[in-house]
Write a structure and sequence with these properties.
With about 280 residues, this protein is mostly helical. It is built from 13 helices and no strands. Helices cover about 60% and strands about 0% of the residues.
């Protein structure tokens, strides 16, 4: 199983391996424009939808109440899906992967990443882009996703990193500077800390049988009592962090921590950070 899970070949099982596995599964990647069009067309005219896609839902004048309502519906939908491999993940190729690795691992992280992408799009973040083959992620995108998963799992300090990233994007900081901040600079200490936290967690969960507590595969359906219960609190943490940023709230007032991160991006420096590791099962 270790060989099957170690997607990047570094000999370790980490959260980056789980992300690669999940995003390689058909149906996990969410296209921003298609998602926003689908969610908004019932209640908004096309010109508003077009602006939401070109800019952000908040800039298009969509109320925070409506955005929160859609976000809650997204979380509820993906939470229901996480109790079984649905048609969304059952496209050609999906079942072949499920047959070769622990299905509940793909299931949980696949639906988690679907929720991450949808929440980011609702609250003003840009497209999560895949490689030409539809399966590759650059390091900047990988690290941004890792930060989101850190927020979802209660890793202290990850919230400030996400708000700082939103601040940088809203200020129009050059892609070159933002990429550097994610791979070498301001955000990277956060990324490393989250990866370390997940490394310990995944070792405990996978090899101590956390996922094995789900109902075994019967006729292609995987149960998930534990994952079902933990899914909503994790998504709610990310939603809470995204609700008040410079991308989602025109009246947002930046904190000192956000301003510090942006200053470090311009200077190319890293933010010194110490994490207090929280219990991810604690809402």
């Amino acid at each position: 199983m270790r060989k099957q899970l170690d997607q990047n070949g570094d000999g370790e099982i980490g959260i980056d391996d789980m992300i690669i596995l999940a995003l390689n599964t058909p149906g996990v990647h969410v296209t921003r424009a298609s998602f926003l069009e689908k969610e908004l067309f019932k209640n908004y005219p096309q010109d508003v939808i077009d602006r939401a896609i070109a800019e952000t839902p908040a800039q298009a004048g969509i109320s925070s109440k409506d955005i929160d309502r859609i976000a809650d519906a997204v979380i509820a939908f993906e939470r229901n899906c996480v109790s079984g491999i649905s048609a969304a993940l059952g496209a050609p190729g999906g079942w072949a992967m499920v047959a070769t690795i622990p299905a509940d691992i793909v299931q949980y992280y696949g639906y988690t990443l679907r929720a991450v992408q949808k929440l980011l799009y609702l609250y003003g973040f840009p497209e999560i882009r895949m490689g030409a083959e539809g399966m590759d992620l650059d390091s900047e995108t990988m690290n941004a996703i890792i930060l989101c998963l850190g927020v979802m799992n209660g890793v202290a300090g990850a919230n400030n990193a996400i708000k700082g990233m939103a601040h940088a994007l809203a200020k129009g900081i050059e892609k070159r500077l933002l990429n550097m901040a994610l791979t070498k600079g301001a955000f990277y200490p956060f990324v490393k800390s989250v990866m370390k936290w997940f490394g310990v967690r995944l070792t405990k969960e996978i090899f101590a049988g956390f996922f094995k507590k789900a109902i075994p595969v019967v006729g292609g359906v995987v149960g998930g009592g534990i994952t079902f219960l933990s899914f909503k609190p994790c998504c709610d943490r990310l939603k809470d962090a995204l609700q008040d940023t410079m991308l989602s709230n025109p009246s947002h007032v930046s904190s000192e921590e956000e301003n510090e991160v942006v200053e470090k991006i311009f200077s190319g420096e890293a933010v010194e950070v110490e994490f207090e590791e929280l219990d991810p099962a604690d809402p």
